[in-house]
Design brief:
Layout: E1 7-14, E2 17-18, E3 43-46, E4 51-58, E5 65-68, E6 73-85, E7 92-93, E8 95-103, E9 111-118, E10 124-133, E11 138-147, E12 157-161, E13 177-182, E14 189-195, E15 220-227, E16 230-231, E17 234-235, E18 240-245, E19 254-258, H1 269-273, H2 282-289, H3 294-306, H4 309-330, H5 340-348, E20 353-356, E21 360-365, E22 374-380, E23 390-392, H6 399-408
Helix pairs in contact: 3-4, 4-5
Length: about 400
């Protein structure tokens, strides 16, 4: 992300006050809404054992421009503000500030805002971020864990591409080189454990999954040199995930994921076929899988169910658009579309209400109190490779509504 010159003003900063409600009582469904006017990504990096730097890329081209009659100039204006909480159930704001960003000549395409926060203690905290387009009067939000609980936490690693630009995703390409900036300036080596695993798809919400223990023994191990707080460039050619540690005796570290080329997009016939397992019978899926021309078989599936080419194209765009969204929102140790949340998002669509607590996320489809509404609860899984791993609490009561919604994709 290249930095361009703009006017930036810190407009307020305060600590130790209270919010009206706990974060767990706010509707966070906007995090899973791709119709918002812009994205709000962020990464955190512990600059030392007392402070964290937060980096936020901002696409000013997504902001609405306004004309100032006094100056005769057109401008874009945005407000980035943050609040830090101890956890989702806390109402006390530990730190907060607002940053006013003005592009007075419409020369700015994108920029990156960074700010530093001092940790109140050695612990994990939640950062609530809001970006307001002041001329549109609209807002997007994001929630970011800040982890200073251990020297081995992932916030002690800052991932960069070969040009030294920050990466705002842990999903990387097998064709490019990367490096880390490290909090530990004394580290001479970073140990890498490579895992090549094939994980199954999520099951329907009424079917319990068989529990299996993860085999923590890595498929291979290698070492990357480090000096003065930076690693050498490294390349990750094989699909799977890579766990990086400055101290191999501790459980923490930073995990990078390598999926199919083009991820999170859907680009190949196999990438189109696999998500169809959610709405097809076993026989239908196997027939498409064994077809001489898999892409043609997939097209025929949609055409036969839609009834005409126009509706088939609309259904394809909607279904695979949700697959891409699921990859962006729910990817953890495997692709987002394979997860429990990804499954429900693809088949049901974005939830109307999302509440998140310390170890649970609740989704609601429909209106509260309506017997036809659907309420889902996803429990956060303790996973050394990802903070984004959630498992659905299954129930036989979902069975009828599941088959009803699947049938709407087939007519």
């Amino acid at each position: 992300m290249k930095i361009r010159l703009i006017s930036i003003l810190l407009i307020l900063s305060f600590t130790a006050c209270s919010s009206l409600n706990k974060l767990s009582l706010y509707n966070l469904s906007g995090q899973y809404d791709n119709t918002l006017f812009t994205r709000l990504d962020a990464v955190a990096f512990n600059t030392d054992d007392q402070s964290v730097s937060v980096f936020v890329p901002i696409l000013m081209s997504d902001m609405v421009s306004a004309f100032d009659e006094n100056t005769g100039k057109t401008h874009r204006d945005a407000l980035l503000r943050y609040e830090m909480f101890e956890n989702y159930d806390s109402k006390q704001i530990l730190d907060s500030a607002g940053i006013l960003i003005t592009d007075s000549n419409l020369m700015l395409i994108d920029t990156m805002i960074s700010f530093k926060i001092r940790y109140p203690s050695s612990n994990k905290f939640i950062l609530k971020l809001e970006l307001v387009d002041l001329n549109r009067v609209d807002v997007v939000r994001n929630y970011l864990w800040l982890d200073n609980s251990s020297p081995a936490s992932s916030d002690h690693y800052l991932l960069k591409d070969a040009d030294g630009d920050l990466m705002f995703t842990k999903n990387v390409s097998g064709e490019d080189d990367y490096s880390f900036e490290l909090t530990d300036k004394t580290a001479h080596s970073v140990y890498v454990r490579y895992y090549k695993r094939d994980f199954p798809l999520a099951l329907p919400p009424f079917l319990e999954e068989t529990e299996t223990n993860f085999e923590y023994g890595a498929d291979s191990v290698f070492v990357i040199e480090a000096r003065d707080g930076s690693t050498a460039l490294f390349h990750l050619p094989e699909k799977g995930f890579y766990h990086f540690q400055t101290d191999s005796n501790k459980r923490g570290g930073y995990t990078i994921f390598r999926f199919d080329p083009g991820f999170p997009q859907v680009q190949s016939s196999s990438q189109m076929l696999d998500p169809l397992r959610y709405i097809t019978t076993v026989a239908e899926f196997r027939e498409m899988q064994d077809a001489v021309d898999v892409k043609l078989a997939i097209d025929n599936f949609w055409l036969n169910n839609a009834g005409n080419p126009t509706r088939a194209r609309a259904m394809i765009q909607k279904y695979y658009g949700r697959v891409v969204d699921a990859n962006q929102y729910f990817t953890s140790y495997h692709e987002g579309w394979k997860t429990d949340r990804g499954l429900m998002y693809i088949v049901y669509g974005p939830p109307r209400i999302v509440y998140r607590g310390e170890d649970i996320e609740e989704w609601l489809y429909g209106e509260k109190g309506n017997k036809n509404s659907i309420r889902l609860q996803f429990v956060k899984v303790i996973n050394p490779f990802s903070e984004n791993d959630y498992s659905l609490i299954k129930s036989p009561s979902y069975k009828e509504k599941w088959y009803n919604i699947v049938s709407t994709w087939r007519r």
